[in-house]
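Weekly structure sync, notes
Attendees: PL (lead), two postdocs, one rotation student
Agenda item 3: pending single-chain targets
PL asked that the sequence for the first pending target be pasted directly into the notes so everyone works from the same version. It is reproduced below exactly as submitted, 327 residues in total.
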Amino acid sequence: MKDAAVAELAVPPAGDGVAAVVLIGDPADPHIDVVARRLPRQGTVVIDAASLPTVLEGMSLHGCTVRDLAGEVVRLAPQIPSRGWIRRLAPADWERDVVLGSKRAAGLASRMTALAAVVRQAGTTWLCDVDALFAAENKIVQYRAADALGLRVPRTMIGGDPDRLAAELGEPFVIKPLGPGNFTADDGGEQVIHTRAVTAAQLAGADLLDAPFLAQQLLSARFHLRVVTVTDRVWTAELDAGGLPVDWRSVDEAHHSFTPSSRWPGVGEDAVRLARCLGTGISCQDWIIDECGPAFVDLNPGGQWLFLPEVLTLQIADHLAAWLNGA
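Predicted structure, written out during the meeting:
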C-alpha cells in the first residue's frame, strides 16, 4: 500500500475531470502552431520528446500530468476522455551529432520511452494512434493496402539485382528511399534523396539491399495530386507535371504551384478508403494522373499540407481543430 501511495504522488489531482487536447509535435512546427492557435490554450497540451522535460509533470500506473499552453496542470487518465493528434514524436534534427551508445543517446532514448507511455495512455482518442502511424509510414504496407482495395499502384519491387528490376518494371524505372528521405552528410550538410528514374546499367555494382530502395514502374505524369484527408473529409490540389522532373519536390517553385481541384472526385473517395484501411485519421497522399488515369504513389500519416493554397489549408486546420475539440 505504501508503494502505491508513493506512486500516486507522481500524479497530483490538479486538472481532474478536464478533457484535454494533446498535440504531439514541436511547438515551433507550423503545422502544430496553425492547429494550436485554433484551440483554447487552457487544456491544450503540446509535447514531444524534445519538450518532454518541461511539459511532463509526472506519471504513474493510473495516469500522467502535463502542463497545457496556459501553464496549468492537466491530467491524462482513463476516466478523463481526451483527443490527440500525433504530428511528430521529435523534431527532425533532434538527434543530430548525438553519438550512438553515448550517455546523451541513452537520455534521449529514455525520453522517447516516456513519450511512448504518454501516447499509449488510456483515455485519449488519437486521430491516428502511434501504432497505426508507424505501420502507415512503411511504403510497402501502404502499397499492399492500396492493392488490396483495388486501387491502381505502380508495379513495385525491392531487390538487389538491377537487371531483374529492369525486366520486371521496364526501363527506365523509378527508385525511391524505403526509409528516411534525407540524411546528414559527413560535411554536416543536409542531403535529400529524391525519387529518380534510372536504368539497370546506371545501378551496376550498387548494393541495393545495403540500404534497401524501393523500385517502381515509371509513370509519365500529366498531373500530380496532393490529397489531404481528415476523418471523412478530403481536399485535393493538383500540379501540372509539364516540364517537371519525376520528383516535383526537387523544384522549389512547384511547391507553390498547386491549385485546388475538384476534377478527380474518385481519387478523393479512394484516398479516404485507403486512410480508413490504414487507420490514419489524417493523411497527406500523393497521386499521379497519367494517360491511364489516377495511380496512388505515397501516403504520409504525419502530414505536409501548409504549402497548398490557403483556401484549402484554412479548411484543413479548421476541421482538424474542430475534431480535436470534440465536434
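Discussion points:
- Residues 103-119 form the longest helix (17 residues).
- The chain has nine helices and 18 strands.
Action: rotation student to compare against the earlier draft before next sync.
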